């Protein structure tokens, strides 16, 4: 006998309120197992793969790809009873909500109520589901099968997101022949109906004067975080030009060592190590403002700002202060690969304590970086380029970069901020100092 269970969008991060359905890995009629990946979602922090908490057959995908849904909204219906899929249609959003109420609200026992079977423990997602026997369900009559596409003059068959899209674009659904299941109208059908058929005599359409790009996902979260940071923490930014000729030579020599054969060694590695050493000398740089107290952290989770196709993300290396130089190189390499592939997890993107942003990769000398919310300092590393420089009393061409440190003036005084920047610069000018100060 069919028994339909609906999987609700869970909170996969800290305080997640909504997510976008990026890609379904299953379709109606597919068999699924517990913990099988069924869908990719994009949150404000990362693209996350969700496992299925049920075993059975997919009855219906309740949300289309590209749609944004709130946490707690059902996204897929799975037949776990072993019967034919689709014995209980997904129905409209209102019907789904009503069904959920009946599923989740405990009810008193009544005469004639079906006795529950011996409870079985099944693995579910952390924070999702209830203990067996915690609720009782009323027996429900089987719902009628889904209705086919109505005859001419009836309501066109289309899901709510498609209807909204058609309304926004001014497309008449009744004039469209659907190509989806059972003749339903899809997003592609609406887009095709919006575009008039081109003829050879037509002139090229004039380019639009403007384009509206919806702000969502990472870019939406980044915008909110930057506004909150810029207008709550009093930023101070200091700049320092540094001769990094010796650092570049050290990078070349590290690449030749067998300990670094499997990882990419770049100047960023030594910048990161220098900042970690400077933090140990000035702990206020690894602190945070907490209303009536300054919280000084003794663990350094080093964030590295990364520009990706989805926007700016800042994954961090946990306990970076405790890593050896080869371990730090490997961690930075993994972090970069994960960020570029869009697979950084919420755990990778939370808990940072201080950040480095490498603006030099864009050919930029310097900037005024905005603090990552909850942190007291961020270091910008500019491009390394040949410049005339006074070296040992003579003018020479040297490899030079510009460092910029922004810090929260509530947490760090100017002397402390200057000490961090000066120390980082001194270690990049002469990497031997890292050995002396560690």
Automatic annotation (TrEMBL):
Residues 157-194 form the Peripheral subunit-binding (PSBD) domain. The keyword Acyltransferase applies. Its cofactor is (R)-lipoate. Residues 133-161, 174-212 are annotated as: Disordered. Keywords: Acyltransferase, Lipoyl, Transferase. It holds the Pfam family E3_binding. Transmembrane segments: none annotated. Belongs to the 2-oxoacid dehydrogenase family. This is Dihydrolipoamide acetyltransferase component of pyruvate dehydrogenase complex. It comes from Actinomadura parmotrematis.
């Amino acid at each position: 006998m069919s028994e339909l269970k609906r999987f609700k969008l869970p909170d996969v991060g800290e305080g997640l309120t909504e997510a976008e359905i990026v890609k379904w890995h299953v379709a109606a009629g597919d068999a699924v197992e517990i913990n099988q990946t069924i869908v990719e979602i994009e949150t404000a922090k990362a693209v996350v793969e969700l496992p299925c908490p049920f075993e059975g057959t997919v009855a219906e995908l309740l949300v289309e790809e590209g749609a944004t849904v709130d946490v707690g909204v059902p996204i897929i219906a799975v037949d776990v009873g072993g019967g034919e899929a689709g014995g209980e249609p997904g129905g409209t959003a209102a019907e789904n909500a009503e069904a959920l109420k009946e599923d989740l609200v405990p009810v008193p026992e009544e005469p004639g109520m079906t006795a529950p079977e011996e409870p079985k423990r099944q693995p579910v997602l952390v924070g999702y589901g209830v203990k067996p026997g915690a609720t009782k369900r009323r027996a429900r009559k089987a719902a009628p099968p889904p209705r086919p596409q109505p005859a001419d003059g009836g309501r066109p068959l289309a899901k709510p997101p498609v209807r909204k899209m058609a309304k926004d674009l001014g497309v008449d659904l009744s004039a469209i022949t659907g190509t989806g299941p059972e003749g339903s109208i899809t997003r592609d059908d609406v887009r095709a109906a919006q575009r008039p058929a081109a003829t050879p005599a037509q002139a090229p359409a004039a380019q639009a004067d403007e384009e509206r790009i919806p702000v969502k996902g990472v870019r939406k979260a980044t915008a909110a975080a930057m506004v909150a940071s810029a207008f709550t923490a009093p930023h101070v930014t200091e700049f320092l030009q540094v001769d990094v000729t010796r650092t570049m030579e050290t990078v070349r020599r590290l690449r030749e060592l067998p300990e670094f054969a499997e990882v990419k060694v770049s100047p960023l590695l030594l910048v990161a190590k220098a900042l970690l050493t400077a933090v140990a000398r000035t702990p206020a740089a690894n602190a945070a403002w907490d209303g009536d107290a300054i919280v000084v952290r003794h663990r350094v989770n080093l964030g590295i700002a990364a520009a990706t196709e989805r926007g700016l993300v800042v994954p961090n290396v946990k306990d970076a202060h405790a890593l050896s130089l080869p371990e730090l190189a490997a961690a930075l390499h993994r972090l970069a690969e994960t960020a570029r592939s869009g697979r950084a997890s919420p755990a990778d993107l939370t808990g940072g304590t201080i950040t480095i942003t490498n603006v030099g990769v864009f050919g930029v000398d310097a900037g005024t970086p905005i603090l990552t919310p909850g942190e007291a300092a961020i270091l910008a590393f500019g491009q390394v380029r040949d410049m005339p420089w006074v070296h040992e009393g003579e003018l020479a061409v040297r490899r030079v970069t510009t460092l910029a440190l922004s810090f929260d003036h509530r947490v760090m005084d100017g002397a402390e901020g200057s000490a961090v920047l000066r120390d980082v610069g001194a270690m990049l000018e002469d990497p031997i100092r890292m050995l002396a100060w560690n």
